[in-house]
C-alpha cells in the first residue's frame, strides 16, 4: 500500500516531492511593457499573434509556452507522459486547439484563474504517485477573448470601474519530474468553493479573496506554520482591492500576512502608467509571473519557501446573466528551494 501523503484536513505533503524542471512565459505587448517585461521568455509584437481570432491567438500562446518549457527542460514531447492544461474559454478551446499537435495525453482543467495552481497540484500528484516520470502544465488567458466571453465585446467601448482588473494576455507552462532541480513542490492545499454572495463581475478581487483566505488559512493550519515560515505568500490575481480584503479576513483568523503577501495581478502591470485599475487577472496572470519572476527567485535561493495560491472566480456568462453569485476557489502549492 502506498505511503499516506495526506496532511491535516485537506492538504498534501509529498514524501517524494516532484521537481519543477522548467517554466516558460509568453505574453502580449501590454504585459511586455510592464515591470516584468524583460523577464518573460517571449513578448509577442501584437495581441493577435498573426491569427484571425482572439481565441486562435490564445491557442498560439499556449502552443508557444508549452514547447518553450519542454525545450528548456531538454526534453521532447514524447517524453511528457501527461499534460494538464486549461484556460477561461467555454469548453477549454484555447487548450484543446492549441495543444492537439503536441500529441500528449491531456487532462483539460477548469479552475478559472486558479487553474495554474490546480494543474501544478494534479501534475505533482501524478508524479509523486508514480504515474508519470515527466508531466507538463499549461494555462492561458487573453484580454480580447476573456472580455468577449465574460463581459463586453471590445468594440462596445464600455467604461471599466476602478475595481476592475485587466485580463493578462499570456500563457505559462511548466515541466515537472522526479529528476532533481533547484525547485520542488513539497506540498499542496486544494481549495474549496467559497461563495460570499458577491455578484459584481467587475470586482473579481472581492469575489475571490474569501476563497484565498480559506485556502491559505487551511494550509497554515494543516502544516502547523505561521506566515513567517514562508518568504512569500503569493495570490494569483486579487489585485489591489482583493489584497486589502484578504489581509483583513486573515487577520480576523489570527494570521497577519501583510509582510509576506504578494499578488501576481499587482506585480505584472504598472497600474498607474498602464491604466489597469486594480491590476491584472486571468489564467495566464499567475502562470507567467510564476515562470518569469517567482521560479527564478526560488532557483537562485533568494526565496527558500513560497506558498503559491492562484485565485479563481467560478462564473460563466450563463450563470452571470441568470443572476447567480460568483463563487471563488483557490488552489495552493508549496514551492521550496533545494
Give the SSE layout.
Layout: E1 6-7, E2 11-13, E3 19-27, H1 29-32, E4 42-43, H2 54-72, E5 82-86, H3 93-99, E6 106-108, H4 115-128, E7 134-141, H5 143-150, E8 166-167, E9 170-177, E10 183-189, H6 204-223, E11 232-235, H7 239-252, E12 261-263, H8 264-267, H9 271-274, E13 280-281, H10 283-299, E14 305-309, E15 311-313, H11 317-321, E16 328-330, E17 332-337
Parallel strand pairs: 3-4, 5-6, 5-7, 8-13, 11-12, 11-14
Antiparallel strand pairs: 1-2, 2-10, 3-9, 7-9, 10-17, 14-17, 15-16
Helix pairs in contact: 2-3, 6-7
Structural account:
By secondary structure, the chain is of the alpha/beta class. It has 2 domains: 172 residues, 3-Layer(aba) Sandwich (Peroxisomal Thiolase, Chain A, domain 1); 155 residues, Peroxisomal Thiolase, Chain A, domain 1, CATH 3.40.47. The strands form 4 sheets. A 7-stranded mixed β-sheet has the order 1-2-10-17-14-11-12, sandwiched between helices. Strands 4-3-9-7-5-6 form a 6-stranded mixed β-sheet, sandwiched between helices. The chain has a two-stranded parallel sheet with strand order 8-13. Helix 2 crosses helix 3. The radius of gyration is 18 Å and the shape is globular. The relative contact order is 0.19.
Taking the alpha carbons of the first and last residues, their distance comes to 28 Å
CATH superfamily membership of the largest domain = Stage V sporulation protein AD
Assign the CATH class of the largest domain.
Answer: Alpha Beta
Query: Structural class, please?
Result: alpha/beta
CATH topology of the largest domain: Peroxisomal Thiolase, Chain A, domain 1
Count the DSSP helices.
11
Number of strands: 17
The CATH architecture of the largest domain can be named as 3-Layer(aba) Sandwich
Tell me the Rg in angstroms. Answer: 18 Å
Strand content: 15-25%
Q: What order do the strands of the largest sheet run in, or round the barrel if closed?
A: 1-2-10-17-14-11-12
Question: What is the mean pLDDT?
Answer: 93
Shape category: globular
Which spans have pLDDT < 50 for at least 5 consecutive residues?
none
Number of domains: 2
- Reading the helices and strands in chain order gives EEEHEHEHEHEHEEEHEHEHHEHEEHEE
Helical content stands at 25-40%
Largest sheet: 7 strands, mixed
Oligomer: single chain
Amino acid at each position: 500500500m502506498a505511503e499516506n501523503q495526506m496532511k491535516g484536513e485537506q492538504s498534501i505533503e509529498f514524501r517524494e516531492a516532484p521537481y519543477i524542471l522548467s517554466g516558460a512565459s509568453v505574453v502580449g505587448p501590454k504585459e511586455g511593457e510592464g515591470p516584468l517585461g524583460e523577464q518573460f521568455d517571449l513578448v509577442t509584437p501584437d495581441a493577435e499573434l498573426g491569427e484571425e481570432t482572439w481565441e486562435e491567438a490564445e491557442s498560439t500562446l499556449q502552443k508557444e509556452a508549452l514547447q518553450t518549457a519542454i525545450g528548456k527542460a531538454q526534453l521532447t514531447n514524447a517524453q511528457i507522459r501527461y499534460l494538464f492544461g486549461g484556460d477561461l474559454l467555454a469548453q477549454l478551446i484555447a487548450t484543446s486547439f492549441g495543444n492537439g499537435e503536441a500529441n500528449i495525453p491531456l487532462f483539460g482543467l477548469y479552475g478559472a484563474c486558479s487553474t495554474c495552481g490546480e494543474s501544478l497540484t494534479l501534475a505533482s500528484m501524478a508524479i509523486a504517485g508514480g504515474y508519470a516520470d515527466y508531466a507538463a502544465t499549461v494555462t492561458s488567458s487573453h484580454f480580447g477573448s476573456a472580455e468577449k466571453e465574460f463581459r463586453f465585446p471590445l468594440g462596445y467601448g464600455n467604461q471599466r470601474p476602478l475595481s476592475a482588473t485587466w485580463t493578462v494576455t499570456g500563457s505559462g507552462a511548466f515541466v515537472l519530474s522526479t529528476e532533481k532541480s533547484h525547485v520542488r513542490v513539497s506540498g499542496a492545499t486544494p481549495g474549496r468553493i467559497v461563495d460570499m454572495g458577491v455578484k459584481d463581475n467587475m470586482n473579481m478581487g472581492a469575489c475571490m479573496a474569501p476563497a484565498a483566505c480559506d485556502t491559505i488559512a487551511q494550509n497554515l493550519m494543516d502544516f502547523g506554520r505561521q506566515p513567517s515560515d514562508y518568504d512569500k505568500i503569493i495570490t494569483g490575481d486579487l489585485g489591489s482591492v482583493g489584497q486589502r480584503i484578504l489581509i483583513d479576513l486573515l487577520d480576523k483568523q489570527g494570521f497577519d500576512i501583510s509582510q509576506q503577501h504578494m499578488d501576481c495581478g499587482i506585480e505584472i502591470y504598472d497600474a498607474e502608467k498602464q491604466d489597469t485599475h486594480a491590476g491584472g487577472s486571468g489564467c495566464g496572470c499567475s502562470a507567467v509571473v510564476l515562470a518569469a519572476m517567482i521560479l527564478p527567485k526560488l532557483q537562485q535561493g533568494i526565496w527558500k519557501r513560497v506558498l503559491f495560491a492562484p485565485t479563481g472566480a467560478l462564473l460563466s456568462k450563463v450563470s452571470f446573466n441568470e443572476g447567480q453569485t460568483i463563487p471563488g476557489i483557490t488552489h495552493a502549492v508549496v514551492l521550496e528551494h533545494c
